[in-house]
Amino acid sequence: MPHWKKAFPLDLAEEAHFGRREFVRFLAVVSAGFTAGIGYLAIRKRPLEGAPDQAHKNLGPLRICETGDVSPGNSRLFTYRDEQDRCILVRTTNGDLRAYRQTCTHLGCSVRWDGRRLECPCHQGFFEIERGFPVQGPPTRPLSALRVEEKAGGIWITGELPKPTVAVEENQS
Ligand code: FES
Question: Mean pLDDT, to the nearest integer, of 125-153?
Fold first, then answer.
């Protein structure tokens, strides 16, 4: 036997066997950790669904504000389904309430109330307030409209309105 084998008595067959065992043990530990992580995420998911920033996700009726908070000729911004679903509530000069998603149907900029119509500042698109139809500029489709109601001292969004098919005459007053 060479001198170095006496100094380092390694059995290669045993070493290989030991290596496989270690590898299997390593896989078991990694699998257990992965399973525990997935379980933790599944448990965490439920409380997050009720977190404040998503509290009104997918709900129907949503109270926006007090009745007196939006005077004739003014508007108010709000979110509906989630924080990305930006919408605008308008009380027209004759006291009617209208609500639309802010997303312009041209290229998706946010529309704003100019006191008479909803204006998209990106390409000077305009929508009439009665039903959200485009009346000027590049947009060709109406805004997404929401059903708005006044009840119990508040202004509520109670759902979505179907897309209108016939435009109304824009009030030129
Ligand atoms: S994105 Fe609104 S007019 Fe172009």
Answer: 96
Backbone φ and ψ of 40, nearest 5°: -60, -45
pTM, entire model: 0.65
Residue pair 118/102 in contact by the 8 Å Cβ criterion: no
CA of 20 relative to ligand 1 center, distance in Å? 64
- What's the confidence (pLDDT) of residue 173? 42
Question: Which residue has the least CA distance to atom 1 on ligand 1?
Answer: 107
d(CA 47, CA 43): 8
Q: Given ligand 1 and candidates 88, 110, 118, 123, which is best to mutate, with the most ligand atoms within 8 Å of its CB?
A: 123
8 A C-beta contact, residue 128 and residue 170: yes
At 56, which helix (H) or strand (E)? none
Whether 106 is in the pocket of ligand 1, judged by its Cβ within 6 Å, is yes
Residue 10: CB atoms within 10 A of its CB come to: 7
Q: Residue count of the chain, please give it.
A: 173
Centroid of ligand 1 to alpha carbon of 124 (angstroms): 7
Q: Does 132 contact ligand 1 (Cβ within 6 A)? A: no
- Measure the CA–CA gap between 127 and 97, rounded to whole angstroms: 15
Which atom of ligand 1 is least distant from the CA of 125?
Answer: 3
pLDDT band for position 50 (cuts 50, 70, 90): very low
